Amino acid sequence: MKRYWKSILLCMVIVIVLGSFYMKSSLAAQKPMKIEFEKISGNEDEIDDLILYGGYDMGNQYSNWEITKNGTRERSHHSLIQELTKTYATPALGKLIKEHKQFMRGKGLNQEYFYEDEQLIAYAYMEGPGYDGPTNHSLMDIALLNKESKKITSFKADIPNKEKYYWGYVQEVQLVDGQLKVFTQGFPAAGGSDLNVYTFDLAEQKLVDAVLIASAKADEVNIAIINGYSIQPQKYVLINVEEYNHSDNGDEMKNVLADTIIYNIETNESQKVAISDDERPPSLYSGTISDSSLFVPAEAENGIEIREYDIEAEKWINKRTFALPYPTREEGGGVLELMNGRVYNIQSTNDGQAVFIGDLRTGESLYEGKLRIKDPGKDKVDNRLEIYSIEQQ
After folding, report:
1. Which of 168, 217, 291, 379 is least surrounded, with the fewest CB atoms within 10 Å of its CB?
2. What separation in angstroms does the CA of 203 have from each of 154, 155, 386?
3. What is the pLDDT of residues 196-239, one digit of tens each?
4. How many beta carbons lie within 10 A of that of residue 120, not counting itself?
5. Are residues 337 and 382 in the same domain?
6. Distance separating alpha carbons of residues 299 and 281, to the nearest angstrom
7. Residues 26, 127: one domain?
8. Same structural domain for residues 100 and 189?
9. Tell me: the pLDDT tens digits for 293-316?
10. Domain assignment of residue 3, given as a range
């Protein structure tokens, strides 16, 4: 019997996994639910590529859902292969996997590692021990796919000053005039954090430049690329730098620095966004860059205020307010996203989830609607839908 214990154990695991999967599938099939968009005004084309991620609370049951104009899908209700491999990706990466399987094989599925334009897909990954030790043996692993010829090129390159950092990772990848710019965050052994951009000549397959964009060395630091959610070409990178020190009694953290930096990828120039204490927008993490303007949301009494910063003139130029015709809004029950020249707001109200889309530049309302739940348990008063993320396909 002892000779076969491994085979018996493997069979038991398979039975349990298969049983759990099909039981969950059966339960999901018994409780079909649809969440649909209901237009109030505007153009329905505005929600064609929209993906909402949310959770549905039925008291003692909670499920995660993906909502689009074309249907609703429970996020935990995947195929058996997905359940076993857990290889889920963002919509942008899912598209790359579907269309370029050979190139995507073996790649880390973080959107920040990829760049795509009409001719090329690029990938950059920082190899190294990571948390387990210093990165002084790290290399930048770069791969390129020519979409027309289907040719894949890959090479590895050294990273300068790598002995300084005990850990680092890629935050953004961009391409300008045949040069790949890889933004990385590195954590020095002495503490703090650095944001570097390494430039690689693709024809020569070598590093040609390294620039330190931002460095923070307080007790606690946070350097983040805010607009790094897209794998498409960008002209600017929006960076937020925050530093915190312990208070004298050691019980609290005091903010000692809060800078917003705009980095021009084409010219390698940085500028700090001029913000006085009385006009600092409270939601810089929701900011976005469109053309040569930075747009940042701020709370307004009866809606959403959008502040516009002219990057070339280096000054704030406009404030626009989007009036939201919602019934009483629930505290903490909404999500706000600025992207692709639009402001998206999903808000919990006393009449369910309200949807608003507006044009950042004109202040025009483009779409207003609601999310309607079609569910056997919809009459239960404790049921609740909450949207926590918005993306575009």
Report:
1. 379
2. 11, 11, 49
3. 999 999 999 999 999 999 998 877 888 889 887 789 999 999 99
4. 16
5. yes
6. 9
7. no
8. yes
9. 999 988 777 788 898 999 999 998
10. 1-30
What count of residues does the chain have? Answer: 393
Residues 387 and 295 in one domain: yes
Residues 229, 291 within the same domain: no
Instruction: Report the largest interatomic distance among the alpha carbons of the chain, rounded to a whole angstrom.
Output: 80
Task: Name residue 193's amino acid.
Answer: S
Pairing between β-strand 269-272 and β-strand 288-290 as defined by DSSP bridges: unpaired
Can you tell me the distance from the alpha carbon of 198 to that of 188, in angstroms, rounded to the nearest whole number?
A: 17
Tell which residue, 306, 293, 298, 294, has the closest CA to residue 282.
298
Residue by residue, DSSP assigns 228-295 as: TT--S--SEEEEEEEEEEE-TTSSSEEEEEEEEEEEETTTTEEEE----TTT--TTGGG-EEETTEEE
Per-residue tokens: 208: 């040609």
Domain annotation covers residue 254: no
The verdict on pTM exceeding 0.85 is no
C-alpha to C-alpha distance for 206 and 202, rounded to whole angstroms: 7
Same domain, 100 and 195: yes
DSSP 393: -
Same domain, 57 and 127: no
d(CA 313, CA 262): 13
CA–CA separation, 359 and 344 (whole Å): 9
Q: Which of 9, 11, 17, 15 is nearest to 85 (CA)?
A: 17
- DSSP secondary structure code for residue 327 in this structure: S
Rg (CA), the chain: 24
255 falls within a domain: no
| Number of domains the chain contains | 3
- Inside any domain, residue 338: yes
Number of other CB atoms surrounding residue 278 within 10 Å: 5
